[in-house]
Amino acid sequence: MLEDFTLDKYERPIISLRITLTNRCNVNCLYCHHDGMVKSKDEMTADELYTICKVAKNIGVKKIRLSGGEPLLKKDIVETVEKIASLDFKDISMTTNGILLEKYAQDLKDAGLNRVNVSLDTLNRETYEFITKKDYLEDAKKGILKAVEVGLYPVKINMVIMKDINQNEIKDMFRFCRDNDIVLQIIELIESENCDDDKFSADYHYKLDMVEERLADMADEVYERKFMQGRKKYYIDGGEIEVVKPVDNSTFCANCSRLRITPDGKIKPCLLRNDNLVELISHVRNGESEDRLEEIFINGINNREPFNS
Ligand code: SAM
Distance (Å, rounded) from C-alpha 268 to C-alpha 235? Predict the structure, then answer.
């Protein structure tokens, strides 16, 4: 049933809203694209985020994802989740580096968070330090296991694959995930301001096509997630692995059903562009009506265009 979704000009339904709560982070990953955000120190309050989500729900959004920066650095994160959860979305999830998750997992679950994706590119301490410039591997692992324990289900690990850094660790990470009832999501590296020179791409970019071929050979079952940018999910030996390939991938864009909100309250129609943002938060702060805020959302949706077509 697609009737109550808002469609963009390309007939793509807007199913999910990804909100970057803050640009602040407690690690400094060498490849980070900062969710495609322009630098800014502004953040929104729990009440403002509630209003934005309410309007998103009115226009048919079903799922909310909270991200960052590191979302767990937002002081009122539990209150924020609680307020958004009161709107009764189909799914509320969070992408986090997991470092503070052991502390927050139970409260987040109780507040109404459904599930988490935790970014973890390696199980090797030296490699972790090389990638993040910090020594938090054990904290991140404890956070992940706590999320499983409290039922933020399914817990997923986001692993960005980099040539000669962690490309040989996919098997180990898959075993860790399978043994702990976690889904592994491997992600193809995309360029960012932290890694935008040709050297970085040449040195670290690792195409996932061959990995996918191997997974297809090994899989007991393969499933395509139509409205999740056409990503494939492989079931192998009782474990699950998903592959995310945003690089030059027209299927990724053709199946994109996501709108984004920046920490300083703008609607961002595409991860990979910043020249078509639509101002939202000043209208919320001016107390404009929900009908007017819905129109502004629709303006943002009208700016959506596939980056790769
Ligand atoms: N701090 C949170 C975290 O670490 O999950 C949320 C923010 S982080 C920017 C969101 C996701 O983007 C992470 O899973 C990260 O691995 C992914 N990511 C960041 N830079 C990337 C890049 N250049 N290519 C592919 N994925 C990237």
Answer: 34
Query: Is residue 201 in contact with ligand 1, taking CB distance under 6 Å?
Result: no
3-class secondary structure, 205: strand
The protein residue whose alpha carbon is closest to atom 18 in ligand 1 is 32
Token couple for 45: 């309050």
Residue 272 is predicted with a pLDDT of 82
Q: How far is the CA of 22 from the centre of ligand 1 (A)?
A: 13
Pocket test for ligand 1, best of 72, 95, 188, 204 (most atoms within 8 A of CB): 95
Q: What is the pLDDT of residues 158-213, one digit of tens each?
A: 999 999 999 999 999 999 999 999 999 999 998 776 555 566 667 889 999 999 99
Neighbours of 286 (CB within 10 A): 8
Whether 19 lines ligand 1, by a CB cut-off of 6 Å, is no
Contact 76, 102 (CB under 8 A): no
Can you tell me whether residue 232 is helix, strand or coil?
strand
SS3 annotation, 44-83: CCHHHHHHHHHHHHHCCCCEEEEECCCHHHCCCHHHHHHH
pLDDT tier, 35 (very low <50, low <70, confident <90, very high otherwise): confident
Q: Which is nearest to 20 in space by CA: 73, 87, 98?
A: 73
How many Å lie between the centroid of ligand 1 and the Cα of residue 87? 27
Residue 72 CB–ligand 1 contact under 6 Å: no
C-alpha 176/C-alpha 92 separation (Å) is: 25
H or E element that contains 127: helix 125-132
35 CA distance to ligand 1 centroid (A)? 7
**Among 276, 272, 215, CA closest to 248:** 272
